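[audit] Reproducing an earlier prediction to check determinism. Same input, same settings, fresh worker. If the tokens differ from the archived copy the diff job will pick it up downstream; this log only records the rerun itself.
[audit] input (314 residues):
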Amino acid sequence: MKAMVIRRYGAAEVLQYEDVEQPKIEPTQLLVKVRASSVNPIDWKIRQGMLSLIVGNKFPKILGFDVAGEVVAVGSGVTRFKPGDAIYGSTSFPGGGYAEFAAVPESVVVLKPTNLSYEEAAAVPLAALTALQALRDQGNIQTGQSVLINGAAGGVGIFAVQIAKALGAVVTGVSSTKNLDLVKSLGADRVIDYIQQDFVEDTAQYDIIFDAVGKRSLSETKKVLKPNGVYITTVPSPQVFLESVLTALLPGQKAKFLFEKPNAKDLLFLKELIEGGKIRAVIDRTYSLQELAAAHNHSETGRAVGKIAIAVSS
């Protein structure tokens, strides 16, 4: 099969389009013909070597955490799928989606939403699961609460706005001037243009501040966080880690960070929201698998609006 492979850590040019052996599946895995994948910041952070202590130095590696495609074969222990099923979901760490075929655990995929293309479906799993688990599990979001999403037009932010709204919150989205209309169209009740105003100087206060781009900390945002509010980030800096430990022991405001956990139950919940018209995917650009280096470079600029999709096979 064809795949984008890295044989060392480095810049986007280390991604090479090669012929490699098709993966063999274990009893609890599916062999999936990958129709589409997407780019998440963790993909290029792994490629750069930023997570080498976790990922290790064994090569070659195929990255890509998101997949949407068709089941080709199932392991002997698989009970929920059959060949021909259209699925979407996650791959095993540290990836595997940037290839024509992927071995995927049954526990981290579900049937694809019927109203999404493969590219749109592949844009959902990691980013939307991150948003859902941050708001629901870490933030304990409740109907009527006031929620601010920093980075509301980014890959995670677009889903965070929609999920917060679907769960009954009053949502404020922070983005640049050119993306304000998009954030409003996703359901935000109010928008803040960060070019014109720093949200930490706002007069409003929030039950939850979800920093989907990891740019701030609890100490910077506590003035606009309610007394028992929660600050959540996707980027656990040393400061955020320290704040999370200290605030866990004390009453009042909390700082939390999130490591997304792929699972079928949450993907099914997202599928129901998508098919019910509560969530949609926003695709910034679609690249072919051979253009993956350009897609990574675009993601690294931090200027993508929504998700970057990768069309793998037709």
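[audit] rerun output stored. Observation attached for the diff report: The chain is about 25% helix and 25% strand.
[audit] end
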